[in-house]
Amino acid sequence: MSESNIWFLENIDAQGIFCSKKLSNESGGHVHITFEKGEYIFRQNEQADKLYYISQGRVKIGTEEGDKSVTKAILTTGEIFGEKALAGAFKRRDFAKALEKTEVCVINRSEMKSLFKEHSPLTLFMLNLLGSRALKMEKRLESMVFKDSRSRIIEFLVDLNSERGQRVGYEWVVRNFMTHQEIANLTATSRQTVTTVLNELKSKNIITFNRKRLLIRDINLLAQEVSSN
User: Fold this and answer.
1) DSSP letter string over the chain?
2) Which of 3, 48, 123, 129 could form an S-S bond across to 89 if both were Cys, CB 3.0 to 4.6 Å?
3) Is a pLDDT exceeding 90 seen at residue 216?
């Protein structure tokens, strides 16, 4: 996890809270569920009364209309989704789908009220979660309107590092790197364009990558590639 995100989780043991054995044993409503690749965790218009914690795997959050689909986020182990159930939503506006075999801990809305009472930092944590995701979507929309494809892809890499990167000496590594198609979906570009931009950055020795990780050799040079466009 990047240094910029430490404040967000410093007082929270998310797994200990959301995947608590105590909750599972005593409440009867807290469950661990495994979803296979491609299986929906929830669909649009379903009742929004649960929160989910990813204990293992990856989840796509998106919206579908007819045969069209928009990817809003790709989340991984240790992340939370379905949080709009705590913000007054009664029906899901999005879907959540497992991108690989995924295990989630499910907490219903009434259990969350108890957790807020037991863990005082949790309220601030959830407010920060809601706020940061709203800002992220706003920034993404502005990027799609005002920036070209190349800039959007590079900016996405910079932001991905800010959220999930780990410092290794003078370099940064993002593990469980996304596929080119997933990046294309999140940046409103094409898979071919993503491949071209990544290979260009690799040829400049700014990054290296494979299916398991992204290694950023110089984060400042990568950021300059955005500002130069």
Assistant:
1) --GGGHHHHTT--HHHHHT-HHHHHHTS--EEEEE-TT-EEE-TTSB--EEEEEEESEEEEEEEETTEEEEEEEEETT-EE-GGGGTT--B-SSEEEESSSEEEEEEEHHHHHHHHHH-THHHHHHHHHHHHHHHHHHHHHHHHHHS-HHHHHHHHHHHHHHHH-EEETTEEEEESPPPHHHHHHHHTS-HHHHHHHHHHHHHTTSEEE-SSEEEES-HHHHHHHHHT-
2) 48
3) yes
